[in-house]
Write a structure and sequence with these properties.
Radius of gyration of chain B: 23 Å
Helix content of chain B: over 70%
Number of domains of chain B: 1
Radius of gyration of chain A: 23 Å
Number of strands of chain B: 0
CATH superfamily of the largest domain in chain A: P-loop containing nucleotide triphosphate hydrolases
Shape of chain A: globular
Oligomer: heterodimer
Number of strands of chain A: 18
Number of domains of chain A: 2
Largest sheet of chain B: none
Order of helices and strands of chain A: EEEHEEEHHHEHEHEEHHEHEEEEEEE
Number of helices of chain A: 9
Number of helices of chain B: 13
Distance between the termini of chain B: 34 Å
CATH class of the largest domain in chain A: Alpha Beta
CATH topology of chain B: MetI-like fold
CATH class of chain B: Mainly Alpha
Distance between the termini of chain A: 37 Å
Strand content of chain A: 25-35%
CATH topology of the largest domain in chain A: Rossmann fold
Helix content of chain A: 25-40%
Order of helices and strands of chain B: HHHHHHHHHHHHH
CATH architecture of chain B: Orthogonal Bundle
Chain lengths: ~325, ~280
């Protein structure tokens, strides 16, 4: 239960093409994350899978069944929205049970499933409350609970953590990860936050301008980005891109090197530069260097380092971790 | 400290303006009410005076209640107003939902067409309406009035409600769709409760012109059985002699039901506003 095949999904609003032929295969129990900048079509793709938007062309198969003409409620999916989208006039319990009630599930079974979901998410004390009486984190847990209760073959998450503050976001992220392990359900999750993508996903789908840039495990994307877009999108701080001719590298147009793959020394090294700005984060120190050879680069050092603005330093890139990109911005293997 | 002083001054001025506006707005109502309890002579001698034991009289109310079937007129007015409001709200909200929720060809044109009635007064079509009602055999029925008032109220209702419905979260409607609610259930159970304040506004806007209208009752339903309060009060206004006691009493009585309806709707209005503010 819970596989998904998309083949050449296209979606256009008038003349504007939002999805330009998406092919994707999601296996049972996988946690797949769509990530990309805003406007890349990731939310539209999720809506198409849910049946809230019709694709202009292409086919969607859930558990091998073509679902293009199946209404959302009958696709065996459940969705969690960014804005929680709880029914304001219903209690937490009724919010969770409404889908089953509509489907004609017998009452005792609804009770049982709601009880199970609410204990899983520690929502028991709030069952009789209305959404207005809950905090943001609790509301999002109710929304997740509403999805669990349906026992769907496919969970869809549309930026579920974007409305939460930083601490709650980490906590809820953990909860979603545990939920996935526990339910072993297939989950599709949309986010613009690459940290969420890296920490949760089995498989990340990087989207840009309505097309898939790369599909792979988090470490695949980090270690072997297929092109400059993915290389720049995954990893924080962003990878440094240096024109190859500046470094005298033949056969490539751009050289990419991650900030954490550059060593720093006060005495000697390949690139001489001056510290423009230093960010001391405790666990990391992030330095912005104006170098003579490579231009402005970012360097990430682990632990505390006493560098400050205007210090003269030498940076040495780790040759083995360099990424080389050709004239079409594709990675050279 | 200086800040506090200016804010006293500011709020004082604001209150002054509001109080004077209130007085101006309430004055005609006050005058009507006061004079309805006076004898005919007292009304003309000292229109501003409050009734004293010597000038106090209920003759106006007695006339109103004895002459003609005023209870019946009230009933007619109430039926026409309430049914019209209900129809305006129902059809207006449904049209507004369709216009704001669904993308279809001609959506914008349809919206403009439905809003056109805001700018064109329905009375321009009186002759045609009368001909239509005659042909349909609806003259001298309350149905005729309800139909006309529903048509009159719809444009503004659709205009206001469709703006409000655009503000209802798409996610909420989509959550409903995934939970298997039909479009009707989404409309009635999710969207309508959220636009209740707008519905109350529309109800108030719709109600007052209907209740006060003299034109259409006079033309479409002047029969004794179907007279409304405003039309009923006219029988005391003659070409040469006007029974002021009766007119003022009738008008005073006519204020009451509309006041009750207004209080009901405005409670909704305020509740809606505050529930939105603390969300």
């Amino acid at each position: 239960m819970g596989s998904l095949q998309l083949s050449s999904i296209r979606k256009a609003f008038g003349d504007h093409e939002v999805l330009k032929g998406i092919d994707l295969d999601v296996k049972e129990g996988e946690f797949v994350i769509f990530v990309g900048p805003s406007g890349c079509g990731k939310s539209t793709l999720l809506r198409v899978i849910a049946g809230l938007e019709d694709a202009s062309s292409g086919s969607i198969r859930i558990d091998g069944q073509e679902v293009a003409t199946v209404p959302p409620a009958k696709r065996g999916i459940a969705m969690v929205f960014q804005s929680y989208a709880l029914y304001p006039h219903l209690t937490v319990k009724d919010n969770m049970g409404l889908g089953l009630k509509q489907a004609g599930t017998p009452k005792p079974e609804i009770e049982e499933r709601v009880a199970k979901a609410s204990s899983m998410l520690s929502l028991d004390p709030y069952l009789a409350r209305r959404p207005a009486e809950l905090s943001g984190g609790q509301r999002q847990r109710v929304a997740i609970g509403r999805a669990i209760v349906r026992e769907p073959s496919l969970f869809l998450f549309d930026e579920p953590l974007s409305n939460l503050d930083a601490a709650l976001r980490v906590q809820t992220r953990l909860e979603i990860a545990r939920l996935h392990r526990r339910l072993k359900a297939t989950m599709i999750y949309v986010t613009h936050d690459q940290v969420e993508a890296m920490t949760l996903a089995d498989k990340i789908v990087v989207l840009n301008a309505g097309a898939i840039e790369q599909i792979g495990s988090p470490m695949d994307l980090y270690n072997k980005p297929a092109n400059i877009f993915v290389a720049g999108f995954i990893g924080s701080p962003q990878m440094n891109f240096i024109p190859a001719e500046k470094l005298g590298e033949a056969g490539a147009r751009t050289i990419g090197i991650r900030p954490e793959h550059i060593a720093l020394s006060r005495e000697n090294g390949e690139w001489k530069g001056k510290v423009v700005h230093a960010e001391h984060l405790g666990a990391d120190t992030i330095l912005y260097l104006e170098t003579e050879t490579a231009g402005l680069i970012t360097v990430r050092l682990f632990g505390e380092h006493r560098y400050g603005p205007d210090d003269i330093v030498f940076a040495t890139p780790d040759k083995a971790s360099m990424h080389r990109f050709d004239v079409n911005d594709r990675a050279i293997a | 400290m200086a800040k506090a002083r200016t804010s006293y001054l500011r709020s004082g001025l604001i209150h002054l303006a509001l109080i004077s506006y209130t007085l101006i707005a309430l004055f005609p109502v006050f005058l009507t009410l006061v004079n309805s309890f006076k004898t005919r002579n007292a009304i003309f001698r000292e229109p501003m005076a409050i009734p004293t034991p010597s000038t106090f009289s209920l003759v106006g109310y007695e006339t109103v209640l004895k002459q003609g079937d005023f209870i019946g007129y009230f009933q007619n007015s109430l039926i026409v107003t309430v049914v019209s409001i209900a129809l305006v709200l129902l059809f207006g909200a449904m049209a507004a939902f369709a216009l704001s929720e669904y993308r279809f060809r001609g959506n914008l044109v349809m919206g403009l067409y439905l809003a056109l009635g805001i700018m064109i007064p329905i009375r321009l079509g009186t002759v045609a309406i009368l001909q239509g009602m005659v042909a349909a055999g609806l003259v001298n029925t309350l149905t005729a009035l309800v139909l006309v008032y529903t048509a009159q109220g719809l444009p503004l209702a659709i205009f206001i409600l469709s703006e409000f419905m655009r503000t209802v979260s798409d996610d909420l409607k989509n959550a409903g769709r995934i939970d298997g609610l039909s479009e009707y259930a989404i409309f009635f159970r999710l969207v309508l409760p959220l636009v209740r304040p707008a519905m109350a506004t529309v109800a108030v806007f719709t109600m007052i012109p209907i209740w006060n209208d003299l034109w259409f009752p006079l033309i479409l339903a002047p029969g004794e059985e179907t007279k409304t309060v405003t039309l009923g009060a006219q029988m005391f206004i003659g070409q040469f002699v006007t029974n002021w006691n009766a007119v003022l009493s009738a008008l005073s009585l006519a204020i009451l039901p509309v006041l009750v309806l207004y209080v009901i709707f405005s409670r909704q209005l305020i509740r809606g506003i505050t529930s939105g503010a603390v969300k």
